[in-house]
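Q: I'm building a small set of examples for a reading group on sequence design. Run inverse folding on the following structure and report the sequence directly after it, with nothing in between.
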């Protein structure tokens, strides 16, 4: 039995959730239907009382006059959400106009009919400013939900954020010069008058070899269970795919100890 098939069999036997993921090669999506599908997830076995479901994501580059845009449509099997009759769940449009980057997301799961809009701008000295806003259904009011900045500071990067609607502040310190891909990062959230930080998060990402890498997160909230999860990527056991194994465990179980681990196994391939 091939190692990949054996791993899937063992995961199913242990009651894990199996996800199957598909995506195209790196680069811009092509116009053909088969290669335009970048993500496909099929959940076999339920979780928290919910039966398995099917999700898909489709990407395409289009031009609106001289403005290049990228459109992403996410679909979900209607039975996964009985209140929705259409499988289309969200539409995302992203691009840039002059020196301002933007991303607009409209989700059917939002009963208010509002949409989210993110704007980003790079200052000459190398600081990236980002504002996340929410626009109501009739486009009459707009509220700012988050304002953040990203800047390199020698071998480190810093990213402060402010959430005006809740008054929360977030500060993230990372190692390296790539956003969201830091080998090591530390994040904390605090609110004025709360008497201390609300939560901490420690992240790690490491390339073990050209075909093996590992990611991990330690989440330490003050009003929720602490969680540790680790994700392992292996592209050697299967020549045509990447197998991703993930384990998550609550450090504050029902009896105050470590809870039972939640396991998942995904397969990412190209076609």
């Amino acid at each position: 039995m091939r190692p990949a098939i054996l791993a899937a069999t063992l995961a199913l036997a242990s009651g894990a959730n199996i996800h199957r993921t598909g995506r195209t090669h790196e680069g811009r999506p092509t116009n053909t239907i088969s290669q335009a599908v970048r993500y496909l997830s099929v959940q076999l076995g339920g979780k928290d009382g919910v039966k398995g479901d099917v999700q898909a994501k489709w990407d395409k580059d289009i031009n609106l006059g001289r403005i290049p845009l990228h459109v992403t449509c996410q679909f979900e099997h209607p039975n996964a959400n009985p209140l929705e009759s259409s499988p289309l769940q969200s539409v995302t449009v992203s691009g840039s106009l002059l020196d301002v980057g933007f991303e607009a997301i409209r989700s059917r799961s939002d009963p208010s009919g509002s949409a989210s809009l993110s704007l980003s701008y790079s200052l000459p000295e190398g600081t990236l400013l980002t504002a996340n806003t929410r626009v109501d259904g009739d486009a009459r009011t707009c509220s700012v939900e988050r304002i953040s900045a990203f800047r390199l500071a020698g071998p480190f990067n810093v990213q402060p954020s402010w959430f005006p609607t809740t008054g929360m502040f977030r500060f993230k310190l990372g190692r390296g010069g790539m956003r969201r891909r830091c080998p090591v990062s530390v994040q904390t959230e605090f609110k004025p008058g709360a008497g201390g930080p609300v939560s901490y998060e420690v992240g790690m990402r490491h390339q073990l070899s050209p075909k093996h890498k590992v990611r991990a997160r330690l989440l330490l909230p003050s009003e929720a269970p602490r969680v540790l999860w680790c994700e392992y990527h292996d592209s050697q056991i299967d020549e045509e795919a990447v197998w991703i194994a993930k384990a998550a465990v609550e450090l504050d179980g029902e009896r105050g100890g470590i809870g039972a681990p939640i396991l998942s196994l995904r397969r990412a391939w190209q076609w």
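Residues 3-13 form the longest helix (11 residues).
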